[in-house]
Amino acid sequence: MKIAVLISGGVDSAVTVDRLYRQGHDLHLFYIRIGMDNGEGQCTAEEDIEMCTLIAKKYNLPFKVVSLHEEYWEYVMQYALKTVKSGLTPHPDIMCNKIIKFGFFEERWGKDFEKTATGHYAKVIEEDGKYWLATTPDAVKDQTDFLAQISYDQLSHIIFPLGDLTKEEVREAAIAANLPNATRKDSQGICFLGKIDYSDFLERQLGTKTGPVIEIETGKKIGEHKGYWFYTIGQRKGLGLGGGPWFVVRKNIRDNVIYVSHGYDTKLQYGKTIEMDEIDWITVNPFEYDKFEKDSEDKLKVSFKNRHTPEFLNGTLRRDGDNGYVLDSEKDVQGIAPGQYCIIYTPDRKICLGSGMIVVENKKKKHGK
């Protein structure tokens, strides 16, 4: 099979190459450059490319560096900045997969290959004549939540060779294959930013605006912040308040006010209802597919995540109006942040069905809809 392999210089994509090479496929390696030409926010691109070149030479494979930095800035980082400025919490990683890796890359280069492979910890399985995005054995490393906005067309052209491995097994495979990056550390954070701190990046782009930090229970001002866009619902670190822990529980965007609550057990950190304007289903709309058992025509048992975590929560998903959905969780959910995505899975936690952007509760009612 002729396969385009997206490699990053990390151990995961290197083991992906090794596994596919040993299976006898015709591999063509690609590195996507997304750093900006002005030098701000560069990834460790040269170091990564050097490592990718070593991998390509080891297996005598063609290797090409392709640039999507303008597209990344326009469609991912501008989305992130716009979302933050609106007082919401963005998810640039989920957008990068949807728009860059499986969007622009596929349209320009991936289309010339039978499949595109990456080192994501996820699986594509085939059941009932359809492709499904499935979870992996490594609950900590599973990345289906980062892939939950891809389309069915995108999914049908992807393979994830690491889908049956844990991170420990990947490291062992890298050592056994004598890969040059077998012990290289995993990258962290948003690649575009490189060594730039996320808060520093926001300050460069959006500036600062001093506002009060209010203890929500008492209405007392207990400090100041430098702009609501630096903070997200559920945030604990970086608040600069003594006598903690303090958690961000609400934001007043119009007046630039951050509301916080004290203590680990404050109920204001939690909620049981998650509202979404719509859900992007990957393979099918489960409400319209007989494979999935429903409590009624408008209620579906699901498991879900509202942030990147190994733990799943259980709940009931119900339709709300023409396109909206409401998820009622069985347990309290920490840090429900509008702008983030709620990832929907089957109750057995094996299939990722899709995802919807979390909206402010009762948003539709407030707008008279």
Shape: globular
Radius of gyration (CA) equals: 22 Å
Q: Walk across the major sheet and give the strand order.
A: 12-17-16-15-18-19
Task: Please tell me the overall pLDDT.
Answer: 89
Describe the structure.
- With 369 residues, the chain is an alpha+beta fold.
- It folds into three domains: 2-193, 3-Layer(aba) Sandwich (Rossmann fold); 208-264, SH3 type barrels (Roll), CATH 2.30.30.280; 268-366, Translation factors (Elongation Factor Tu (Ef-tu), domain 3).
- It has helices spanning 11-22, 45-59, 69-85, 92-108, 152-155, 167-176, 198-206, 363-366, and strands spanning 2-6, 26-33, 63-67, 115-117, 123-127, 130-134, 158-159, 211-215, 220-225, 246-252, 257-262, 270-276, 280-281, 294-296, 299-305, 313-320, 324-334, 341-345, 351-359.
- The strands form three sheets. A six-stranded antiparallel barrel has the order 12-17-16-15-18-19. A five-stranded parallel β-sheet has the order 3-2-1-4-7, with helices on both faces.
- α1 packs across α6 (167-176) and α3 runs antiparallel to α4 (92-108).
- The radius of gyration is 22 Å and the shape is globular.
- Residues 363-369 have low confidence and may be disordered.
Characteristics:
single chain, 369 residues, alpha+beta, Rossmann fold, SH3 type barrels, Elongation Factor Tu (Ef-tu), domain 3, six-stranded antiparallel β-barrel, 8 helices, disordered C terminus
Task: Please describe the topology of this protein.
Blueprint: E1 2-6, H1 11-22, E2 26-33, H2 45-59, E3 63-67, H3 69-85, H4 92-108, E4 115-117, E5 123-127, E6 130-134, H5 152-155, E7 158-159, H6 167-176, H7 198-206, E8 211-215, E9 220-225, E10 246-252, E11 257-262, E12 270-276, E13 280-281, E14 294-296, E15 299-305, E16 313-320, E17 324-334, E18 341-345, E19 351-359, H8 363-366
Parallel strand pairs: 1-2, 1-4, 2-3, 4-7, 8-11
Antiparallel strand pairs: 5-6, 6-19, 8-9, 10-11, 12-17, 12-19, 13-19, 14-15, 15-16, 15-18, 16-17, 18-19
Helix pairs in contact: 1-6, 3-4
